[in-house]
Amino acid sequence: DSGVTQTPKHLITATGQRVTLRCSPRSGDLSVYWYQQSLDQGLQFLIQYYNGEERAKGNILERFSAQQFPDLHSELNLSSLELGDSALYFCASSVQLAGVNNEQFFGPGTRLTVL
Amino acid sequence: LAKTTQPISMDSYEGQEVNITCSHNNIATNDYITWYQQFPSQGPRFIIQGYKTKVTNEVASLFIPADRKSSTLSLPRVSLSDTAVYYCLVGPVGNTGKLIFGQGTTLQVKP
Q1: Are A37 and A87 within 8 A, CB to CB?
Q2: How far is A80 from chain B (nearest CA, A)?
Q3: Residue B101 and residue A44: Cβ atoms within 8 Å?
């Protein structure tokens, strides 16, 4: 158990819908990261927040957005869903913003299926 | 950004030592080498990190030659539970903590 929690574990929805994925980082961790893992794209970085502020963006679609709240939990919002958005979405957390010893702890993931 | 190249897959048997090599010819002076392990339908898990020579922890060893253009993850006496995907990452990536994953090496341990 990494200490990072994600809800829900599974999500099945239809194209065009909007969903929200939730992540609670390890106690004391200020950085939260979101990653998407699909069969054809592998594990891809989406976005990073540090202490409530966005700090890095990866290949995140404009239909996707995220935020980190004052209690440090984070939400990833996916809208106008398409079939290709079906994937495993992982949240990770770390103590620091960056640095070489910045080990990330990954949650169990949310499996999103878009029908 | 240093690109990494790993074998796509490897097979081994229980009790054997497994060595997975990663090539990173364009590694920068301030880059470290980090390995993560991922089981099916689980998030990746940090295994080990190093800069040069050899690093050992309770689960693995990491060998890095002087030129640092490659690195080898060594797993001693693997068991069936070591069947997983192993990712070699080189960084830091700018002034953030984001991880750039390659394709990884799928290790299959057989009885």
Answers
A1: yes
A2: 25
A3: yes
- Window 48-87 of A: residues touching B by CB (8 A cutoff) are 48, 55-56, 58
The predicted-structure confidence for B23-78, as pLDDT tens digits, reads as follows 999 998 888 999 999 999 899 999 999 999 999 999 999 999 999 999 999 999 99
Cis peptide before A8 (omega within 30 of 0): yes
- A107 near A84, Cβ under 8 Å? no
The number of angstroms, rounded, from the C-alpha of A104 to the middle of its chain's C-alpha atoms is 13
- Partner residues linked to A66 by β-bridges: A76
Cβ neighbors of B67 (< 8 A, separation 6 or more) are none
If you count residue pairs, one on A and one on B, with CB atoms under 8 Å apart, how many are there?
73
